[in-house]
Amino acid sequence: MKRLMIVALTLALVAPVSAESMLYYHEPSQYTVLIPETIVTDGTQYTFTAPVMDLCDGEHIEVTIEGLDISGAKRLYTTGGREVIAQFYGTDGLLVPGQTVASFYNGQHEAGLVYALPFSTEGAGDYYGTVEFSINLVQN
Question: Structural domain of residue 80, as residue ranges?
Fold first, then answer.
């Protein structure tokens, strides 16, 4: 009886055993969106470009514009303090703060546009100001 038990135990240990494991790897989204360094307020249209757009499924990129007042305007000033008001426009017309001006999806390398026109002025000179763009990775 002892010998039979040892043989049975040995056979049980030699029998092949299999198991499965989940294999997982995550490559995060990668993207580059180019924003115009200078926007000339003469109606020139600037398109947003994205030379790198490798997004995970269910994600896209949104470019929004900040720093405008509620009427889509931004005040620009000369070094002497004179001001001009420029209004910003996108594909769908006048822009407001936080409005999306471009949305990028996988495989897309150009999207949206922005341009500005002077609304009022206090005379000749060079007027400067800044406008801020936010670039966000968004879940669809």
Answer: 29-139
Token digits of residue 2:
């002892």
- What global pTM score does this model have? 0.78
Q: Flag whether 79 is in a domain.
A: yes
Question: Is 50:108 a contact under the CB 8 Å cutoff?
Answer: yes
Angle among Cα 76, 38, 79 to the nearest 5 degrees reads 35
pLDDT band with cut points at 50, 70 and 90 for residue 67:
confident
Strands (E) across 12-131 are located at 30-34, 46-54, 59-66, 73-77, 83-90, 93-94, 99-104, 110-120
Name the 3-class secondary structure at 6: helix
| Amino acid present at 124 | A
Q: How many domains does the chain have?
A: 1
Q: What pLDDT digit, counting tens, does each position of 85-110 carry? A: 999 999 889 998 889 999 999 999 99
The residue assigned the tokens 């720093």 is 67
In whole angstroms, what is the distance from residue 81 CA to residue 75 CA? 11
Task: Report the CATH number that the domain containing residue 121 is assigned in CATH.
Answer: 2.60.40
